[in-house]
Specification:
By secondary structure, this protein is α/β, with parallel strands linked by helices. Helices cover 34% and strands 22% of the residues. The strands form five sheets. An eight-stranded antiparallel sheet has the order 3-2-4-1-10-9-11-14, covered by helices on one side. Strands 5-6-7-8-12-13 form a six-stranded antiparallel sheet, with helices on one face. A five-stranded parallel sheet has the order 18-17-19-20-21, sandwiched between helices. Helix 17 links the parallel strand 22 (470-475) and strand 23 (497-502). Helix 1 (13-24) packs antiparallel against helix 2 (53-63), helix 9 (306-322) packs parallel to helix 13 (407-425) and helix 13 (407-425) packs antiparallel against helix 14. The longest helix is centred in the last third of the chain and has 19 residues, at 407-425. It starts with a strand and ends in an 18-residue tail after the last helix.
């Protein structure tokens, strides 16, 4: 959930790392720090702040002239162990100050190690689990830094993306990974290492992703990868398929608004080359499944968290409606906490924008252990879930910088629809039905644009409700996950307490909370159950709650029933969640903007949840 970056090379390492930390700010953080190597004498400069990277940069500028440096590590921290204070910010130092560590992840057995080290007289200056790593590496240090790191990490239990510097080894970084992503940018005469490719892409498009158990040693001569026990390891390089412009705001006030408006293009890229009009089906070569393997699937399990989970809920309707395959939706954490039954013929779909979500990755490993087919649905090429699943479908939605997911959700639903068509055509889905579905999918970019063209009207409606402190979202069928996602976006961005409910659940409790101050957003386009949802609207109005209806354009049955209307273009029910959610994204964005919220980096949230 944090961000780390390291640099070895001829440039001013402090400036490179600060620039990289700014690229990583979108992941969410509450403190920051940097460590620099002075190549003139064995000394490290560590600067930390409980504030933003800009504050770190100001403090560094006041102190860095004393240092001539080509090596540095930096960190943005999302607090787990200990409050977001300067003392708890990374990097953390060993007792002598000769070793500094920046760490993403959680060390499960840190208390045991801390007590052992304290028994040897070592004093701790922070509340973090990370500080034990610095002291433990120094405990094992006998002249070889990488060997000491390897020995120390063999004692640790938990997750880490780790960078280590030593005053005794100028121009050297040692990096390790277990459950927390590390990407290595391969440049000419320099190396950039980070937890996220966005901090690397301005330097190179050639990257290596470390696997769990890898230990990377970087010097001015290049890089080498071994295991923790010093056995050589080979990793293939991957080329990044997008440019630095993709992670710039491009004239938009916020990344989130830019990414909302990128959805027609993102959907076009997701669909490109995958709609097979000649066979009334789809082509998803990454699934690596021919007709026989597709026919062997008799149960689908979806593992995901947050927004991806809601996309999976849309997928459940798609798979059951068009393939007849029973589909279970499980929060990814349940795969380890509850131990679900994985039977022969089960195919598990792991959905994660980043491909690094810790709980979803754990579900992937558990299902692979139990012999299930596992398909990853990820946006980030080369991510851990994509690599460990070994097959699946990439979204190709482009980088998503805003913490609140937008284009990833709509692209995930598009991919799930294509998978449902492919599986359905191997079963009961007729050619005529398959053709109708892919014709509808091909319209997705224009459907998305039609909603975006109404942004001014949606912004005006949002302004009316910007001072509400509670809200409900209601939907049925395919629109129930859309209601959940709409509520999530509103609470993420505006800090309004918002809840999504199946419309039938209104009378089972939530109706008691309706007042004139509690708006209800009802998603009711032309779909099954629409008449019952309209009855729910009347129940809300009878309690004087203001109602905003998201309906199909030209809808007349709601005349006089609701306070405000947001129209989406006419489309088939199975894809209506996509334009409906885009309308909800704009609604949430403009409410948050009216309230003066920090839209791209909502408080307490992080982009990739890499801790459990």
């Amino acid at each position: 959930m944090c961000g780390i970056i390291g640099y070895v090379g001829p440039q001013d390492a402090g400036k490179v790392v600060i620039s990289g930390l700014k690229r990583l700010e979108y992941r969410g953080y509450d403190s920051a720090g940097i460590a620099l190597q002075n190549v003139q004498q064995p000394e490290l400069l560590v600067v930390r702040t409980a504030g933003k990277v800009t504050e770190l940069e100001i403090e560094l500028d006041a102190r860095q002239p004393l240092f001539s440096t080509g090596t540095a590590i930096g960190h943005t921290r999302w607090a787990t162990h200990g409050e977001p204070t300067r003392e708890n910010a990374h990097p953390h130092s060993s007792s002598s100050g000769n070793i500094v560590v920046a760490h993403n992840g959680i060390i499960d057995n840190y208390l045991v190690i801390k007590q052992l080290l304290q028994g040897q007289g070592i004093e701790f200056t922070s509340e973090t689990d990370t500080e034990v790593i610095a002291h433990l590496i120094e405990h094992y240090y006998e002249g070889e830094l990488s060997e000491a790191v390897g020995r120390a990490l063999q004692q640790l239990e938990g997750t880490y993306g780790l960078m280590v510097m030593s005053a005794l080894h100028p121009n050297m970084l040692v990096t390790a990974r277990n459950g927390s992503p590390i990407v290595v940018g391969i440049c000419d005469g320099e190396t950039v290492i980070a937890s996220d490719v966005s901090a690397v892409v301005s330097h190179t498009k050639q990257v290596i992703y470390l696997d769990d158990g890898d230990l990377l040693t970087t010097t001015s001569d290049g890089v080498s990868i071994t295991s923790l026990r010093n056995l050589p390891v080979a990793r293939d390089a991957i080329e990044i398929d997008w440019d630095i412009e993709a992670i710039e705001k491009g004239g938009f006030e916020h990344f989130m608004r830019k990414e909302i408006h990128e959805q027609p293009t993102a959907l076009q890229n997701t669909l490109r080359g995958r709609l097979d009009f000649s066979s009334s089906s789809t082509k998803l070569s990454g699934m690596q499944m021919g007709p026989t393997k597709l026919a062997d699937i008799d149960r689908i399990m979806v593992a995901a968290c947050g927004t991806s989970l809601y996309a999976g809920m849309v997928g459940k309707h798609l798979f059951e409606d068009f393939t007849g395959i029973p589909t279970d939706i499980l929060h990814a954490a349940e795969f380890r906490d509850h131990n679900p039954i994985v039977q022969r013929g089960t195919c598990m779909l792991a959905i994660s924008q980043s491909g690094e979500t810790a709980d979803t990755l754990g579900a992937v490993r558990e299902c692979l252990r139990k012999g299930a087919q596992v398909l990853g649905i990820c946006n980030v090429v080369g991510s851990t879930i994509a690599r460990e699943a070994g097959k699946g479908v990439y979204l190709h939605a482009g980088p998503e910088i805003g913490v609140a997911s937008t284009k990833a959700f709509t692209s995930q639903v598009a991919v799930l629809a294509m998978m449902a068509i492919l599986l359905g055509r191997s079963r009961r889905l007729s050619a005529d039905s398959g053709q109708r579905m892919i014709d509808e999918l091909s319209r997705l970019p224009e459907l998305a644009q039609a909603v975006l063209d109404q942004e001014d009207e949606i912004a005006g409606i949002a302004a009316k409700y910007a001072r509400a402190e509670h809200a409900f979202f209601l939907g049925r069928g395919y629109m129930y996950p859309a209601a959940l996602e709409g509520a999530l976006k509103l609470k993420e961005l505006s800090y309004i307490h918002a809840e999504g409910y199946h419309a039938a659940e209104l009378k089972h409790g939530p109706i008691a909370l309706l007042t004139e101050q509690v708006p209800v957003i009802v998603i009711a386009p032309d779909s099954s159950g629409k008449s019952r949802t309209l009855a729910n609207i009347q129940e809300c109005k009878a309690r004087k709650a203001p109602v905003i209806a998201i309906v199909t354009e030209g809808e007349r049955d709601i005349n006089g029933l609701v306070d405000d209307v947001i129209s989406i273009p006419h489309c088939e029910e199975f894809i209506a969640a996509i334009p409906a959610v885009i309308a909800e994204q704009l609604f949430a964005y403009h409410i948050a903007r009216e309230r003066g919220c920090e839209i791209d980096q909502p408080r307490n949230l992080a982009k990739a949840v890499t801790v459990e």
